[in-house]
Amino acid sequence: MSYGQPLAYRMRPRSLEDLVGQQHIIGEDQALYQLIQKGHVPSMLLYGPPGVGKTSFANAIAQSTKLPFYSLNATTSGKKDIEQMIANARMEGSIILFLDEIHRFNKLQQDTLLPHVENGSIILIGATTENPFHDVNPAIRSRMGEIKQLKRLTAEDLFTLLNRALHDEERGLGKQRIHITKEQLQRIAESVNGDARKALTLLESAVRASDEDEEGTITVEDSLLDSLIGRIGVFGDKKGSHFYNLLSALQKSVRGSDVDAALYYLAHLLENGDLIAVNRRLLVMAYEDIGLANPDVGPHVLAATEAAIRLGLPEGRIPLAQAVVEMCLAEKSNSAYQSLDRAIAAIHDGKTGDIPDHLKDTHYVGATELGHGGYQYPHDTTIGTFGGWVNQQYLPDELKNSQFYRPIDAGKEVRLNKIYQYLQQLKNKSN
Which stretches make up the AAA+ ATPase domain (predicted)? Predict the structure, then answer.
């Protein structure tokens, strides 16, 4: 049998009513839906992961209006393509231009197209999988009106879409006699991480790969579906926005002491295969979020990440899992780096001063003549079991009463806090 165009392409919506999901943007009660129904299409930027319907969204809008619709990809289009779009707009009055991968838009394309977007002769609908505030040029963003963030489709949305494709005789698989259970369709819907394109492709692959009996019925077997689902990728570009969102989610889950969530995001990241980026984030977390409350965690995580590099994947997941669980359940303190940030902020605010003379270098002839010296060696004066301490000024005069370190009572920092407070009392008593 000749299938022609892929099922995912054939099933693209032909009207706003055909769209599945994204009701927070294009539902009948939303302003955008009402605008388009009245014939007004604003320029807009569609942002979301692959397969959530950005291209379908643009096509549905185009089909719901009488305006001519053109499509370009910013990675392959040049100045001549943009000039052709401008010529089309002049001939036809106004056009809708869908520009996929808009974050790849170069300056030459911008300079050529932007005036026509500003005067409304070209209604620009841009699509990107990358965070538009990081990757889309501000000149483009400023002319796009609202940024519409599309969400991953739910399993329920995808089940609806798969059923529609299965029974559509014109564009789908409705002319074929296919035996596939609701449970199998649900498995497909739940296995593609909200990606409609992958769901439809998986359904089409399952049908193509299944045997047809003497009566012409195609039966999809569970074993075949297991094999196809095991081969699909659902994780996206490992250097895209979703990857960095996963890193962020991992750190916030560890910080929030949620072991199960942290392990889930670690698994997601490791399936992307970028071990270096994961290790780097885990090391930062050990010192940023665990810190002085449990100083042993830092060396433990360093050992785990070095072991993971030596082992490689998949074995490298074992020490990393141990490190993540330990960090989740460890006492937590960010006092050390927050204290340093206060000192940095003081410097940036101009709160600087001369180093006290008794702290300056004296390992050269003439230091005494410059007034440098008088430093008291703390090791010569012991206090209890702490070791050496002597009351002398270390900060410049302008900052001598500053307190950057603000300890908290968490884990092993409880002991450090007691020592800090004791030394502060000695200092205040001596002064």
Answer: 40-154
Task: Tell me the CB-side half-sphere exposure of residue 381, using CA atoms within 13 A.
Answer: 8
Residue 355 lies in a domain: yes
**Element of type H or E holding 219:** strand 217-219
Q: What is the pLDDT of residues 11-63, one digit of tens each?
A: 888 888 888 888 888 888 888 888 888 878 888 888 887 778 888 888 888 88
Question: Would you say 323 and 282 are in contact if contact means Cβ atoms under 8 Å apart?
Answer: yes
Q: 120 and 34, same structural domain?
A: yes
Q: Which residue has the tokens 């090391």?
A: 283
Does residue 314 have a cis peptide bond before it, meaning omega lies within 30 degrees of 0?
A: yes
Q: Is residue 105 part of a domain?
A: yes
- pTM of full prediction above 0.85: no
Q: How far apart are CA 42 and CA 197, in angstroms?
A: 26
DSSP assignment of 8-61: HHHT--SSGGG--S-HHHHSTTSHHHHHHHTT----EEEE--TTSSHHHHHHHH
Residue span of the structural domain in which 217 resides: 155-231
Identify whether residues 204 and 250 lie together within a single domain.
Answer: no
- State how far the Cα of 162 lies from the Cα of 70, in Å rounded to an integer: 28
| Other CB atoms within 10 Å distance of the CB of residue 183 | 9
Tokens of 281: 């984030």
Among 236, 244, 246, 289, smallest CA distance to 266 is for: 246
Number of compact structural domains in the chain:
4
Question: What is the Cα–Cα distance from 289 to 331, expressed in whole angstroms?
Answer: 9
Task: Say how far apart CA 64 and CA 96 lie, in whole Å.
Answer: 12
* Closest among 58, 145, 72, 56 to 113, alpha carbons compared: 72
